[in-house]
Every structure is written in structure tokens, then in C-alpha cells.
Design brief:
alpha/beta
Length: about 220
């Protein structure tokens, strides 16, 4: 039976923290220059909520600001993220290309399902040429509910998936797997939380460990 693997992007395939602080600092410098922000950049607060859709990020970090300012901030942040990706400031996690090659050679189908925005995901996929392994990359922007489970369901329906796993570092990835009858594999990486990972079927510390679970 053919297997399908659906990977999260941030904190699972892509080391977001390499460009996160940089891009967030750029963004809050921009806000300070516009006299919209007067204290230090709330990087720790962002790390706490890392992985939620961006509109919710700005509601949390800029609770006193207007919807218009949040939208402008969102656009600027995205611009800086993409700029930093294209300038090679980011990095994939160890063994991403190795594990993708391993599975591709065994006729597994590989997909990406991310809370990241389409343009941001495209920048990563293009810079690291991930489309040589990945069938399709799906963004939370494609789902009105902004719910990861619904996004994974869309992939399952589109590609007729009946057997496989969702691999990610946060609770939304674990729920997306379980809500859709797939195996939930938790990645104990930078943004992972132990209480969330405890709900996964399998927990890994390195992507290369996936070989152990799909060794046929």
C-alpha cells in the first residue's frame, strides 16, 4: 500500500528561528520608526505562540493596535522573511534532503501542510529546491477556517490518501493527523513542547529516525 507523508514546514523542515528574530527585529524597528512601538521586540512572546497563523500572531503581539496597523505589520514581516530566506539566512533542519530522497526512492508521496503563507512557503521551496521531492505544498491560506486539520483533510481528499502520517512539531500537527486517521509523528525540535508531543503516536529527535518507522 502506498504511503503518504505530510510534513509541517516551520520548526519541522525549516529552521525558522534562524530568520525569525532577524525578521521580527526588522519589523519592530519599522514600527518604532513609525512611532507605533516604543519598547523592545517581543521575541519571547512570539516564541510562545510560534506556529499559529499570522493574523493571530499580530492580535497577540499588537493587542492595542488597529486592524490596519496589524495588516501593514503582517505585510512588512512577510517581506522581511522572504528577503532573509532568499539571502540564505535560513536553513533546513539536518537530514531533510536525505530523508526526502530516501522516501522518494521508495515511492512515498511527500506533501507539505503549513500555517505559513503561500508566498513565504514558495520562497523556501524555491530556495532549497524542495519541489524535486514534494508533490505539493499547501498553505493555511487555502482554508477559510485556518485549521490545520481541515488543511490536511484537503490534501487527503485531493490525492486520495488512505495511509500515512503527519510529521510536525506542534499540537496542531498532531491533531491534524488524528482528526484524519493518520499517524501523528511529533518532532522534538526547537519550538516543540513536551506536553504537546506526549499526544503524538511517535516522537523523533532527528528526521533521519523516520527511516526506522517506514523501513519497508
Amino acid at each position: 500500500m502506498s504511503q503518504s507523508l505530510i510534513f509541517d514546514m516551520d520548526g519541522t523542515l525549516f529552521q525558522t528561528d534562524k530568520i525569525l528574530e532577524l525578521s521580527l527585529e526588522d519589523t519592530f524597528n519599522h514600527l518604532r520608526a513609525r512611532h507605533e512601538w516604543f519598547t523592545s521586540t517581543p521575541i519571547d512572546q512570539y516564541r510562545e505562540i510560534m506556529g499559529v497563523p499570522l493574523p493571530k500572531v499580530w492580535e497577540t503581539l499588537l493587542p492595542q493596535h488597529s486592524a490596519e496597523v496589524r495588516e501593514l505589520t503582517d505585510a512588512y514581516f512577510l517581506e522581511r522573511l522572504i528577503h532573509n530566506i532568499r539571502n540564505g539566512k535560513g536553513a533546513l533542519y539536518p537530514n531533510v534532503k536525505e530523508i526526502f530522497t530516501y522516501f522518494k526512492n521508495r515511492d512515498f508521496s511527500i506533501y507539505i501542510a503549513s500555517n505559513g503563507l503561500t508566498e513565504y512557503l514558495r520562497a523556501i521551496v524555491e530556495y532549497y529546491r524542495l519541489d524535486q521531492w514534494v508533490t505539493e505544498t499547501f498553505s493555511i491560506q487555502q482554508i477559510q477556517s485556518l485549521n490545520k486539520s481541515d488543511l490536511v483533510q484537503q490534501i487527503i481528499v485531493k490525492y486520495g490518501i488512505s495511509n500515512g502520517a503527519v510529521i510536525g512539531d506542534r499540537l496542531s500537527d498532531i491533531h491534524a493527523a488524528k482528526d484524519n486517521g493518520l499517524v501523528a509523528i511529533g518532532c522534538n525540535f526547537d519550538f516543540a513542547k513536551s506536553d504537546e508531543l506526549s499526544q503524538a503516536d511517535i516522537v523523533i529527535d532527528d528526521l533521519i529516525q523516520l527511516k526506522e518507522y517506514f523501513s519497508h
